[in-house]
Amino acid sequence: MTEFDKYVPGTPCWIDVSTTDAEGARAFYSKLFGWEYEIGSADSGFYTSCLVRGRRVAGLMELNSEMSAAGARPAWQTYIATEDVDDTVARVREAGGQVIMGPADVLDQGRWAFVTDPSGAAVGFWEPGLHTGAQLANEPGTFTWNELQTSDVESAKTFYAAAAGWQTEVMPSEVEGPPYFVATVGGEMVAGIMEASASPGGSTQSFWMTYFKVADCDKSVERVRESGGAVMMARIDSPQGPFGVVADPYGAVFAVISDPA
Length: 261
Known about the structure:
By secondary structure, this protein is of the alpha+beta class. The protein is built from five helices and 16 strands. Strands 2-3-4-1-5-8-7-6 form an eight-stranded mixed β-sheet, with helices on one face. Strands 10-11-12-9-13-16-15-14 form an eight-stranded mixed β-sheet, covered by helices on one side. Strand 2 (36-39) and strand 3 (48-52) form a beta hairpin. Helix 3 packs antiparallel against helix 4 (153-164). The longest helix has 12 residues, at 22-33. The chain is globular and about 45 Å long.
């Protein structure tokens, strides 16, 4: 399924990137994914909607001085759908998370909050208004998977069960190493959870990784390099297809993945 007009609560429904150079980031992602843009009004902080075939697939915003002073850095953010963000925030607090921003209305688009889980990974929750989330996913130039890389898998499983209603199960694997967990809602897979130290690059920092579907992993990784981005892992073969871990020129990390050969 690639077209969406709503998301089941507990499902990642939106992504956006914060950057120190919105114009430069727009140029980078346009070259990489073929995105076109719709730049919002001053009331929205000139929040940019990234478009594929005229459909909304991601957001882009420039960090202001206040955000940077508070420690915000360029990054891709994941937002999880909820029917009631205020109730979700209450459950976040009860489960040991911290609220960074919100809950707050975003004009008539929806209501949101941004929190950190007990391991420090930042994640958003989105209660839809006119903005129901990404209108396209799982096709080239759109997000296809969201993965929590965490320093504490067990506490993450407990936290997201309380905050997002997730159940978790181990993904079978013939490769030795720490287990990879899949989060499900209503029996459908919605996200991954893995130990951060087992991630490409071996970082122990907890964060949410966004995977973008591309037609050709190798060509996309090379395009990142040519456009001034960084390549952490050029290619990793997996049953889901080859993927690479990269960063845009401003430091926001993400992954690109193509279908298996």
